[in-house]
Amino acid sequence: MANAKDPVCGMTVDTDTDLKTEHDGETYYFCGRGCKLDFEEDPDKYLDPAYEPHM
Ligand SMILES: [Zn+2]
Predict the structure, then answer these.
(1) Structural domain harbouring 32
(2) 9, part of any domain
(3) What pLDDT does residue 12 have?
(4) What is the whole-number distance in angstroms between the Cα of residue 26 and the centre of ligand 1?
């Protein structure tokens, strides 16, 4: 079991979840469907170092 950071809201999430997606060979994990959908819509927005995760 491991933890990952939800790139959309910044929450720590368990990697043992189906709420994940692959982008550029990396796997990203999410706290919920909303964050996953937001990320899939515009991954580059959330991976931009200038983006600040928030709920
Ligand atoms: Zn989230």
Answers:
(1) 3-47
(2) yes
(3) 96
(4) 17
Q: Which residue has the tokens 């928030």?
A: 54
| % pLDDT > 90, the chain | 93
Asked if residue 11 is part of any domain, the answer here is yes
| Number of domains forming the structure of the chain | 1
38 domain-assigned: yes
| Ligand 1 centroid from CA 21, angstroms | 13
Average pLDDT of the residues of the chain? 95
What is the Å distance from ligand 1's center to 48 Cα?
16
Query: 7 with 29: CB under 8 angstroms?
Result: no
User: Residue 1 above 90 pLDDT?
Assistant: no
Report CA(19)–ligand 1 centroid distance (Å).
Answer: 10
CA 8, chain centre distance (Å): 5
Ligand 1 centre distance from Cα of residue 9 (Å): 4
Please determine, for residue 31, whether its predicted confidence score (pLDDT) is greater than 90: yes
